Amino acid sequence: MTETAEDKLIARFFRPLASHPGAFALTDDAAVFAPPEGHETVLKTDAVVGGVHVLPDEPAEMIGRKALRMNLSDLAAKGATPAVFLLSLALPRDTSEDWLAAFCRGLKEDADVYRCPLVGGDTDRTDGPLTVTIFAVGTLPRGTMVKRSGARAGDHILVTGSIGDAALGLMLRRDPSLAARWTLSDGERAHLRGRYSLPQPRGALADALRAYASASIDVSDGFVGDLTKLLRVSGVSGEVEVTRVPLSSGAHKALAADSALRDTIYGGGDDYEIICTVADDKLDAFSKAALQAGIAVAAVGRVREGTDSPHFFDAEGKALTFAHRSFSHF
Predict the structure, then answer these.
(1) How many angstroms from the chain centroid is the CA of residue 63?
(2) pTM of the prediction?
(3) CA 240: distance to chain centroid?
(4) Residue 209, C-beta contacts closer than 8 angstroms, at least 6 positions apart
(5) Regarding the domain with residue range 148-317, which homologous superfamily does it belong to in the CATH classification?
(6) What is the mean pLDDT of residues 248-271?
(7) What pairing do the DSSP bridges indicate for beta strands 311-313 and 237-241?
(8) pLDDT tens per residue across span 172-191
(9) Considering the domain 5-24+34-141, what is its CATH architecture?
(10) What is the domain partition of the chain in residue ranges?
(11) Which of 56, 161, 282, 292 has the fewest CB atoms within 10 Å, i.e. the most exposed one?
(12) Cβ partners under 8 Å of residue 173, min gap 6
């Protein structure tokens, strides 16, 4: 029987990513996945849209890797281990085979690194922008998922890594002259640009989150906005000393050069770090576990009673406000 052009495309580019036995080498129109005994699945989907989440000149390899890592970041925040993923791909009509080969090369590299193989999906042509939608599946011991809604008054508020790098990196991609204005070194400029192009999901922290965190959320829409979401759904408030929120050296330089960048840094999004809350009697154990996992964490505030929005202060206790608290598509 004659194969269609789509059959050939799937066999050439996507079958090498489908190492899971339940994928049936992508010869069926559905896949089978069963979590390990005593475990349950965590489900997550996120999309990358050309011109919205990636710039037109972004390398194809990076787009594939970013699309997967965005979803793995959410799994990490829930305490889940990546298992498999599905891919829905809408390709502009002028997409070349070289572009698709590079996209799949980057996607396979990360699928191998994170042990999260492809098990199925869909491919389409479109007159619109590139759209990459990934549906990721993770697993964790039954009943242990770390929700947004578990924060309690008195808990410490912690955040991983550094905040604001990706939003600044996007600004640099659009206007390279900002590097000189912010007096960035070559390494700092590369770091900020890299954080925009390629998230670093904190999967190594998953076990510690399940063991010690009362609530958790990944920072995709901005530190201020995502912390507000976590506290709101938990029915509590909080306070944060903004100077304790970890910034990279490049972000520090940018903020020193232009104080108006404060909203961009703390509310710009694309950080893919993790905000979590930890009870006082579990803080030391959590911090030690994070250190052993190689993930930097910083305690930046406390959860408080109340239902008002969290309060932000500088080192002298002066209240700070943010005109732009969160990225939103709508």
Answers:
(1) 14
(2) 0.93
(3) 22
(4) 76, 77, 78, 79, 146, 216, 274, 276
(5) PurM-like C-terminal domain (3.90.650.10)
(6) 96
(7) parallel
(8) 999 999 999 999 999 999 99
(9) 2-Layer Sandwich (3.30)
(10) 5-24+34-141, 148-317
(11) 56
(12) 55, 193, 196
